[in-house]
Request: fold
Amino acid sequence: MIPRKVHDLKCWPDSFAAVLDGRKTVELRLNDRDYMVGDRLFLREFMPIGCQYTGRVCAVDVTHVLVGGLFGLDLDYVALSVRLA
Reply:
């Protein structure tokens, strides 16, 4: 499948590791990029202390988008179901 859009996103180390090993399958993000099913996310591991990237990257595809305003999710956010690409 060819991705609809590609997004480069920061991802903190604990979340990055959880995505890589399959424990984390949802990304909560500010809905500022018009995320849609079929988009590809390049999650770039980012160290918040020191504000630097580690160089590790993980690609995931968006399989479902839950828009804010439902189930307690703020209107400005989305819950993106993802799977490793």
Remarks:
- The longest helix spans residues 13-20.
- The beta strands are 6-11, 26-30, 40-47, 52-67, 77-84.
- The chain has a mean pLDDT of 95.
- DSSP finds one helix and five strands in the chain.
